[in-house]
Design goal:
The chain is mainly β. The chain contains 1 helix and 55 strands. The strands form 13 sheets. Strands 38, 39, 44, 45, 50, 51, 52, 53, 54 and 55 form a 10-stranded antiparallel beta sheet that branches. Strands 1-3-4-10-8 form a 5-stranded antiparallel beta sheet, with no helix packed on it. The termini are far apart. 30% of the residues are buried.
Length: 580
């Protein structure tokens, strides 16, 4: 009596049953063109098919070998040829070789087909339905589990397959034009073509499927194409299919550009004006730039004079046009500017001027306001007479010129009078000049100054320096021993040589000081206004309209100053004064 294990093994072996299927033979009709080669035979095949669950096995059990690439394996109607595994002989499926395939999913395969595809045919050489009703009336046995194999046997017949038909056909474009004419040909043949033989009518030929050909001479040309698939051939000849007219005209280069002059960077648009239908162009812009466009634009980034050339060709000839010095690129127009030192002083006053123009001028023209002039870049000029002088500079380069004029720029005064006590009262405007400074030494306690909203105690022994940051309106009051007022909007505070702050001075009190020195200058511009101006008690101007300019230098000592946009009052010392 068999054991349970022996029974299980027997059931598995019994489940893998062999099915011998004799080939179902089909024929594919072929048409022979121009010749009648021998018809091709569809191979015969016997196979054993089995499955275990989703795995299918197909064993070549008899018949003809099948060459790889000439058959397909279909499972449930799906081509799985590229996914199968095969044992045995490489490149061919011969008797004894097994093909296997793992079907995706959970359902077992339902049908197997082997399709022969050689010589352009599509003939089913084997068909089997593993489960359910068999294809073509093949009986089947329904399985009791996924590991059951269905066994069937079918006998088929053999037929002949004529070779596939090929028919030559083609088109060309263009089929007419002037020499040289390049024509692109396109194969339009039908059937499984494997070779092409073109004759272009001018001695030229090609074996490409879709060639192009250049006709260099005038005339009408017959083009023919012969195609073949190894079993038959077909030829199509098109008489006078290509017509080549007179040769292409002589090509003559020509071009224009705009603009041809301007400041850098300059973009020039070039336009091709060549004749003779050029097929290619080569531009040289004279600054190492090139182009093959029909009508390019080019940017010149450096000043200079540039020669432009164009080379054109139409396949039968070449021509060059060169325009010497065609494009002129200029530097940007200068922006004139200058400085001078000094800008005021007593006569005779020698002033050194310095060019500060931008964009690289190449020439300069100065006028100094007193009849003097210069063409130097950085001239000096001596003013011999007192007065206020306007100075102009014209700066020029290849791009153009520009002029700047500084009105009333140089002030030349009479010689400075000696110092003394000055009294000035007028409704003229007045201001303390930028850069002027007041310095003193603190001798008593309890001194303070507020700059930019910050209080700074001034200690006994401190050296204080107050520097004007701009032309300032404001007030200054000091006795011989105390300073109670110093209100200006832009002052830099230095305490013992250390910078503290810059801004408006809203409060100042110095309980005692000595060693005062001053470079503060009071400038009272020209204006028609009443003025009372005295030096050491001697009137310089009496009360009444006066348009003179007053310039006091080095204010010091007991001082009462109120300098405003429309009024000035000053009593105090001055190291010198100028009156114009």
């Amino acid at each position: 009596m068999n054991s349970p294990r022996d029974i299980a093994v027997s059931e598995i072996i019994g489940a893998i049953m062999l099915v011998t299927i004799v080939v179902v033979i089909a024929s594919v009709v072929g048409v022979m063109v121009l010749s009648q080669p021998a018809p091709q035979k569809i191979p015969s095949l016997s196979a054993v098919i089995s499955n275990q669950s989703q795995m299918v096995y197909i064993k070549h059990d008899g018949g003809d070998p099948l060459v790889a690439g000439q058959y397909k394996i279909l499972i449930d109607g799906t081509d799985v040829t590229s996914s199968v595994a095969k044992t045995g002989t490489p490149g061919s499926w011969v008797i004894g070789d097994v093909i296997s395939y793992q079907k995706p999913g959970t359902n077992p395969p339902g049908s197997v087909q082997v399709v022969y595809t050689g010589y352009g045919s599509s003939a089913i050489v084997l068909a089997s339905s593993i489960f359910g009703t068999g294809a073509g009336g093949i009986p089947t046995v329904s399985p009791t589990s996924n590991t059951t194999t269905t066994t069937t046997t079918v006998t088929g017949t053999t037929t002949q397959v004529p070779p596939s038909v090929v028919t030559a056909g083609f088109t060309g474009s263009p089929t007419s034009g002037g020499a040289p004419l390049i024509v692109s040909f396109t194969d339009a043949s039908t059937g499984p073509v494997i070779s092409w033989a073109w004759l272009f009518g001018d001695g030229g030929s090609s074996n490409l499927q879709n060639p192009s050909h250049q006709y260099n001479n005038t005339g009408s040309y017959t083009v023919s194409l012969m195609v073949s698939n190894g079993s038959g051939t077909s030829t199509l000849a098109r008489t006078s299919y290509v017509t080549v007219t007179t040769a292409a005209p002589v090509v003559i280069a020509g071009f224009t550009g705009t603009p041809l002059t301007g400041t850098m960077p300059l973009t020039v648009q070039f336009t091709d004006a060549s004749t003779g239908s050029p097929l290619s162009r080569t531009w040289n812009f004279g600054d190492t730039g090139t182009s093959t466009a029909t009508s390019p634009s080019h940017q010149y980034i450096s000043a200079g004079t540039y020669t432009v050339s164009l080379i054109v060709s139409n396949g039968t000839g070449t021509n060059t046009l060169t325009r010497t010095g065609y494009v002129v690129v200029k530097p940007p127009v200068p922006v004139a500017d200058f400085t001078a030192n000094p800008v005021y002083g007593a006569m005779p006053l020698t002033v050194q001027f310095a060019d500060a123009s931008s964009n690289v001028p190449s020439s300069w023209a100065w006028t100094f306001g007193d009849g003097g002039s210069s063409t130097l870049q950085n001239p000096s000029h001596a003013y011999a007479s007192a007065g206020t002088y306007s100075v102009s500079l014209n700066a020029t380069n290849a791009g153009g010129s520009n002029t700047v004029t500084k009105t009333g720029y140089i002030l030349v005064t009479n010689p400075v009078s000696g110092g003394g006590t000055v009294y000035l009262n007028s409704n003229k405007a007045a201001y303390v000049e930028a850069g002027g400074a007041l310095q003193f030494h603190v001798t008593d306690l309890y001194s303070i100054i507020t700059v930019n909203g910050v209080d700074y105690p001034l200690n006994q022994g401190d050296t204080v320096n107050l520097v004007m940051g701009s032309n300032e309106y404001g007030s200054f009051y000091a006795t011989s021993s105390k300073i109670s007022t110093f209100t200006f909007s832009d002052v830099s505070l230095y305490q013992n040589g250390v910078f503290k702050n810059r801004g408006a001075t809203s409060k100042m009190y110095v309980s005692g000081y000595d060693q005062m020195s001053s470079t503060m200058n009071l400038n009272v511009p020209v204006a028609s206004a009443w003025t009372d101006f005295e030096v050491n008690g001697v009137p310089v101007f009496t009360v009444g309209p006066s348009s003179a300019r007053i310039y006091l230098t080095g204010l010091y000592g007991t001082t009462n100053l109120n300098a405003q946009p429309n009024v000035v009052y000053y009593t105090g010392g001055a190291s010198g004064y100028l009156v114009i």
